[in-house]
TrEMBL record:
It comes from Noccaea caerulescens (Alpine penny-cress). The keyword Cell inner membrane does not apply. Gene3D superfamilies: Cyclin-like. One of its GO terms (biological process) is cell division. Keywords: Cell cycle, Cell division, Cyclin. This is Cyclin. Pfam families: Cyclin. It comes from the Eukaryota. One of its GO terms (molecular function) is protein kinase binding.
Amino acid sequence: MAELENPAVMPKLIAFLSSLLERVAESNDQTRRVTTQSQRVSVFHGLSRPAITIQSYLERIFKYANCSPSCFVVAYVYLDRFTHRQPSLPINSFNVHRLLITSVMVSAKFLDDLYYNNAYYAKVGGISTKEMNLLELDFLFGLGFDLNVTPNTFHAYFSYLQKEMTLLQPLSLVNVVVPPRSVITFNDDEASHQKQQLAV
């Protein structure tokens, strides 16, 4: 999409995606503390919360991965698919960073003609190459190897993100109160808009 090539769009997209993921992670952290809802521990879970913020981490990935801007929209599609296929693995503050680096790497490999190897992405993400390889494998199986994103699906997700960014544009992202778990999910075939939760 031509809009993604505009240099002013990507920083806004990064800020909005990180804000969205931060709200989802915080909500799922609270849900885990308050209820006895079972959340499986996986290879994506760290022993502690990373010191780097989600926004700084996403900006770092954007700066060093050199993947096409479309990769970030497709990575968002993959995260949405992953959380719906793996409901016992909701996004939280212990796994969001590893899920992000993995989803961007997988989307770059699927979309771009030229991309860096796993060792490079591991350095960008601050993890070992062995761990990056394991994360990629687990992520692919978690997606059921469903990597294809139709043009309609891509457009639907990007339109949603663009609309939300436009709504937040005049306001500070920090001061905006948005329901933490709401996100739009789209059917791949129809790209129909259905309001659902991001795997809580």
